[in-house]
Structures
1.
Amino acid sequence: MEAKDKIIERILLLIAFSSISILGLIALFIFGEGLPLIWKVGPRAFILGERWVPSQGSFGILPMIVGSFWVTFGAILLGVPLGLACAIFLSEWTPPLIAMVLRPTIQLLAAIPSVIYGFWGLIILVPLVRNYLGGPGLSILSGSVILGFMILPTIISISEDSLRALPPYYKSGALALGATHWQAIWRVMVPAARSGIVASIILGMGRAIGETMAMIMILGNAVKMPTSFLDSARTLTTNIGIEMGYASGDHRQALFATGVILFLIIMILNSSAIALSRRRRS
Amino acid sequence: MSTVFSENLKAEVKNLSFFYNQVQALKHVNLPIAENRITALIGPSGCGKTTYLRCFNRMHDLYPGNRYEGEILLYPDQLNIVSSEVDPIEVRMRISMVFQKPNPFPKTVYENVAYGLRVRGERRKRLLDEKVEKALKQAALWDEVRDRIHDLAFNLSGGQQQRLCIARALATDPEILLFDEPTSALDPTATLKIEELIMQLKKDVTIIIVTHNMQQAARVSDYTAFMYLGEIIEFDKTEKIFTHPSKKLTEDYITGRFG
């Protein structure tokens, strides 16, 4: 029996490590392919360069970095108030029966393939923006709105969890002092759940910054520095997604290098989310 | 209730019953609450003493299906605080509560004490400063925290946290202060300090305290009600309850024969 246990233990260990090693391999591969080009172009010129013309050998990805941050910022601007309001409503006001319907429905939002979001945005949102606000319609604004919806499930479920995980005495303590339900929520419970809520926002940002397919369809993919929310733009992810099909040589390496930058940004976001949720537990 | 009650009344419970859905937790209880005195509720676990206490500031309203019958009249205006027509917020503005476990908010010492004032819309900084200082002094905490009132409240010791919760409850000048086993999570030294504090506070505020610790009730309270299975078995001056109880059940409990 014991020998068998040992074998099973070893196998499980191997499986656990292989999933970690895949992460390591991916990182190694991207960095291995991308870093040489970053050195060749120069990190400064690569990150701060504004011209991306692969055929002429100019590889500056600043417009894409700015584009990624703009759509992410826009998504947060829309997704956070909406998501937080939804989380508060679900944890504090929704009758259990309705919550039982709402919660899985919100989870379902996360299950919709991003190409469907992109499709919907292209057909409904882009014409709306073009007709009512001007510009090409394929714009940071349209992308932000779609992304805002896409990050809702992340923000709602993690924020709601952290609100529900609060010890009940915060609420009763506040109410016992004469606070209204809303005052207890806004001045005690939300601040108490802050680290979880911030973690949900960071994870949402990670999702937004990594989204590719929907953005390819909605953003217009123009390689220029965006100057307004109605401009077309290109993000780090869409840059890779669009051009990888035909790139070769330095161009191909430059796309991997774009991946390196994206990888670093997402790593920073995720590890800060993990650090924050640790602090919440202790 | 054999004693002729010569005290000024701050509140009076008349024929109060309380139900958790179908389960009756309090059965037609009556109790006078003397102004500026300490009334203790004692009894074995599950006798309904905490349930009783929580009726006084309508904490049961947090859960649907809870129901009050009868009256708790708050004097001088004879407001029936368990009436469904009375806003529980209005009741809690006048009757505050200190819980079993110290439950400071994740805020600074200052903001904890100021919370009750802020929810009442108080914004004037000078007045907030004054009231916070006064409440911390009343709770015998000022000297220990005066240099760190802008530190997080979690950095205080357990006993200090509980005194902070008392200061927080006092800051809004409540008429009655409810204590729900306030020392059960504290060590003996901290307990002693809280007890001394409670005795000092009665000059400012009427106090009702629930305790499972009979010595505590004997030490701090002026009046004691002994509860059993949702009923008040005996109510009298504390001295009388602990020396010459008139009911056999009370005597059995205070002599430790059950509980």
2.
Amino acid sequence: MGRPWKKSETYRAVSAALYESNPISKQILGICSALAVTVKLSTAIVMSLALTFVVAFSNLVISSLRNQIPRNIRIIVEVSVIATLVIVADEFLRAFLYDVSKQLSVFVGLIITNCIVMGRAETFAMSNPPGRSFVDGLANGIGYGSILCAVAFFRELLGSGKLLGFRVIPDAFYAAGYQNMGLMLLAPGAFIMIGLFVWLENTLLGD
Amino acid sequence: MSEQSKSLVFAFVLCLACSLLLTAAATGLKQRQVRNVLVDRHRNILLAVGLIEEGRHTDAARVESMYREKIKELWVDSAGAIVPPERRGPGDLPIYVYCEGESVEAYVIPIDTRGLWGEINGYLAIDKDGSTIRGFTVYSHSETPGLGGEIERSWFRKKFVGKRITDRQGRFVSISIAKGSVAQVVPEPRRINYVDGISGATMTGRFLTSGFRDILRNYEPVAVRFRQGILNGPESRTGETNGQAVEEK
């Protein structure tokens, strides 16, 4: 009607990635890393950026090559492109964000096996033009990152009373008997948080 | 071109492009990474002796200036005497001495040992009495996260502080990781030489224990000198002149 951009393919891809079929809360993909890196907000942010970089550029590269990639080796090609980008991201983190990179340890490397990246390459980039694929990658990375950061926000706040390493719960609260919630620092805390987000989103979206 | 050869050519070109990109990233960033690793080690040495607070971020420049000011890198031979840099041999061992003004406060020995899945690297700081542990840090390991990987966490490392590597008579016994809680599995007189183990990480504890034993045994001649107070003087600040003095004794 009055909003023709709402009908564009790109818009549909973006809104699906961010909301209607968010990789974590709707498709329940990438849960392993979502459990592991969300104890602190800083690691979650860096992890989200790394994944967004990888998924956007792997989509771009694979989509540009989609007409040349031989069908019989396409999965191998996709994995090679993704693996290369992940290692490049890891090298950059080691050079510029050494502390966070140490905390993320194996999880940056494990982006290679993250189903979101592979899934977007195979289902979207192989059948869409480069520009739209790149935007789709960005949107999926942000969709993943938004849940990751939201979970990390509550886990760090409730679990250690801090945000980005700064204490935000005033000492007066602790003096009055407030205690950090130890459960939030453990993996079950992340499961519960992610579950709550899935619930919230399903309620807001309806069926 | 047949379908198969096309695939081969494509795979070859892709591999070439990927490896070029990776080589460029690795070599281009190497300098920064090497520096980061070095600063991280210095930070761990300072953490082990207690100059940096646990959990608080200290920036690289501050770490480096503090390290230059307070820590002396020395080498000792198998008899525990300080070796001047120009006469260093293959069997000599590195120690890091923490000096506050003119007096020696503690020394740090590198702990590089086998773990369950790979090497464990860290530092053990021992007080100037040559016996009491001042701190322990781990800067790299490949143990299972959540199990053996807990060795790098402060709750585990803090348990080493105040423990001893000698028994009540002052004889060397090393420091060991108990299987379970020290209060339950170790008899009272030996508890000072044990720290609580991590549940689910028995093997990591066992490897670390044997690593401590071997490394501390190698360093025992140095520890003896510290216990006798030989290395605890103003002259031990300068490696070259002191090397002679200690050797003559």
